[in-house]
Amino acid sequence: MSTDHILTSVDDRVLTIRLNRPEKKNALTQAMYTRLAEILGTVDADKDVRAVLIAGTDDCFCSGNDLQDFLNLPAAGPDAPVLRFMRALAAVGKPVVAAINGPAVGVGTTLLFHCDLAYAGENTRFHLPFVNIGICPEYASSLLLPRMIGHVQAAELVMLAEPFTAARALDARLINAVLPDAEVFAHARAKAVKLAQQAPGALRTTKMLLKRWTDPKVDEAIGFEAEHFMAMLQGAEAREALTAFTHKRKPDFSSFS
């Protein structure tokens, strides 16, 4: 089933990875993370691949983690599938491009911080809802987001945890361009193909230099955030948020301190 939920193809030396779980708005399970980590772990050694393109389905990029899956099968330790995926994407030495349409929630937004180019549809909605569900930001976003847009802007996005538009994401320089929804994938793929035609050694070295000064901190942040994230996922605040979601009501955190 996880193979069906992650589709891959290689054309023009571009590896396209599609999240394909539309009935759950491409929410990521641990099985999907395992498969993604396996795919991304082979990219640098694959001579037929010079660039990677990550996309969702036509109307949804990714609605974040499948929280029920995580609660049923708690991820623990540095070898957890989600952490293997995070480190695999962050470590890819070849260019990575993202094509984003529809919802990009939680990790559907934070994974973009580890891509080199990102293009979104005009109706895309980004959301970092972690505190709304009683957990904390992940995927080194507590390091990278303030670095990209400054502390007060980052705090607004992760503390108030309100959805924001593609136009705001562009203004904050989180993405490269906003396009009509129907044009996003073709535009992003054209950029990936152009990257695949560039001098491969020069691209790898350029990417390495761009990331050289933050890579050690990114790895540290991924692990440090994960310790808090996994613990909080089992905590009372997250249980209240999940119960509220199940019963279609607003969570009540008034009794928490």
From TrEMBL:
Record protein name field: Enoyl-CoA hydratase/carnithine racemase
Gene3D superfamilies noted in UniProt: 2-enoyl-CoA Hydratase, Chain A, domain 1
Keywords: Isomerase, Peroxisome
Annotated GO MF terms: delta(3)-delta(2)-enoyl-CoA isomerase activity
Pfam families per the UniProt record, alphabetical: ECH_1
TM stretches of this protein: none
Localization (cell): Peroxisome
Domain of life the protein comes from: Bacteria
